[in-house]
Write a sequence for this structure.
């Protein structure tokens, strides 16, 4: 069978792959996306629940107002209206003692909006509130570094998030209510294990010049509608192709990546290939790993992974009373009313456990009972509600580890000619988030210029 051709082949149809493919297609390149799964989305995808017929995200993915690369991607494909951004940060929560409070940041210039919100937050004592002032200097140091300044660093690469927060005078109560939940959500790793630099980068992005950068943004449709379907339409409208259910192997000839073999041995030739597979899938792209990328592939194989566990509960009535709710100090750290978030007929509540190494191996019944027990302990409305259905979604390798001593994350360009990398795990400086994935896709596209 003769080979088909493209200008660029993108392996993987998640956020990174579709961001790269649409950026390239927007510049006039003829792009072919090759996705191994039967549908697009990668680790930020959807499935149809067989009992209810609802389209369910494989985990509740939220965005932040500082997600510049993600929003650029969504604007490109005409999907920005499918995301709703808070005017300013507002986070309702119920602490481990059952006390409800709301952190609300007023519409002040950054960073005064954060200070104003914490000062007014009645979940904290005055010592806790004032301790936030001590983070101002290190966060500003990181912001200067991001603008190109050299010299003093905000933290050491060997320092953990927990150590950095303690060293900078953050009280146990403020860590419990704010910093630990934020670190777990952003890094998907306990603060006592994750290295501080990536977390400090997150804070610098969130609490920069734009007060809305710290706001939470929610997809108001399922993820496949938010970005996967419109990205596919964008690519195909520009003479590109999207293949699903197609495993890919990179073809290397004369020391150069020249195409991929997919769909029953069918070859696609191109001048460049972008791999957006996760760190644990990189080795499988090659029959024999070419010498120029052996170190990259070896390092990727050594990267540790962290899981996320999501429990979906269908009740006979609403139980949250708010679109989302923080549950600090618990195994399930966040609860989401999926119908309220999407303004739809979705009827389930989603509870998320980040850094879920302790629960990922538990049985479905045990995880459901744990989640239900924590929700009912926090919310009186949930105690009287009957559970009609429950499901558990495990992403065993949801994100890569950010612990000190992990292998170096690779850049977009590689020593193998014609072969580029993208994916949230590459060297973006951010944790394994949608923003990191979108940024990496854009960087891979730029690296070809």
């Amino acid at each position: 069978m003769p080979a088909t051709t493209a200008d660029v082949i993108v392996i993987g149809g998640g956020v990174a792959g579709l961001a790269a493919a649409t950026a390239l297609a927007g510049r006039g390149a003829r792009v072919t996306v090759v996705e191994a799964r039967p549908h697009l989305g990668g680790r930020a995808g959807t499935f149809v629940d067989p009992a209810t017929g609802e389209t369910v995200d494989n985990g509740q993915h939220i965005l932040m107002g500082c997600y510049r690369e993600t929003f650029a991607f969504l604007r490109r494909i005409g999907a920005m209206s499918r995301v709703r951004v808070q005017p300013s940060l507002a986070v309702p929560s119920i602490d481990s003692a059952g006390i409800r409070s709301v952190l609300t940041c007023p519409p002040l210039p950054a960073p005064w909006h954060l200070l104003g919100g914490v000062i007014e937050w009645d979940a904290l004592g005055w010592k806790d509130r004032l301790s936030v002032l001590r983070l101002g200097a290190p966060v500003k140091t990181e912001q200067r570094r991001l603008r190109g300044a050299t010299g003093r660093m905000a933290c050491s690469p060997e320092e953990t998030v927990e150590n950095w927060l303690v060293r900078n005078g953050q009280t146990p109560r403020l860590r419990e209510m704010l910093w630990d939940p934020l670190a777990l959500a952003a890094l998907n790793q306990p603060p006592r294990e994750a290295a501080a630099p990536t977390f400090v980068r997150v804070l610098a992005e969130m609490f920069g010049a734009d007060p809305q950068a710290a706001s939470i943004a929610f997809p108001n449709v399922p993820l496949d509608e938010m970005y996967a379907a419109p990205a596919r339409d964008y690519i195909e409208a520009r003479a590109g192709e999207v293949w699903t259910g197609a495993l890919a192997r990179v073809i290397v000839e004369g020391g150069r990546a020249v195409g991929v073999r997919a769909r029953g041995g069918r070859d696609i030739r191109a001048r460049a290939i972008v791999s957006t597979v996760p760190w644990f899938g990189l080795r499988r792209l090659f029959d024999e790993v070419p010498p120029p990328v052996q170190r990259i592939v070896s390092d990727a194989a050594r990267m540790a992974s962290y899981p996320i566990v999501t429990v979906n509960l269908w009740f006979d009535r609403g139980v949250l009373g708010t679109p989302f709710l923080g549950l600090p100090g618990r195994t399930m750290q966040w609860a989401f009313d999926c119908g309220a978030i999407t303004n739809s007929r979705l009827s389930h509540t989603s509870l998320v456990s980040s850094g879920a190494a302790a629960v990922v191996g538990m049985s479905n019944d045990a995880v459901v009972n744990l989640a239900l027990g924590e929700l009912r302990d926090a919310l009186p409305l949930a105690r009287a509600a009957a559970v009609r259905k429950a499901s558990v979604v495990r992403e065993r390798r949801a994100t890569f580890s950010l612990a000190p001593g992990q292998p170096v994350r690779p850049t977009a360009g590689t020593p193998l000619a014609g072969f580029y990398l993208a994916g949230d795990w590459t060297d973006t400086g951010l944790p394994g988030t949608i923003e990191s994935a979108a940024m990496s896709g854009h960087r891979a596209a730029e690296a070809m210029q």
About this structure: The chain has a mean pLDDT of 93. The chain has three domains: 4-45+66-79+220-303+403-447, 106-211, 305-400. The longest helix spans residues 172-187. Residues 4-45+66-79+220-303+403-447 form a domain with the FAD/NAD(P)-binding domain fold (CATH 3.50.50.60).
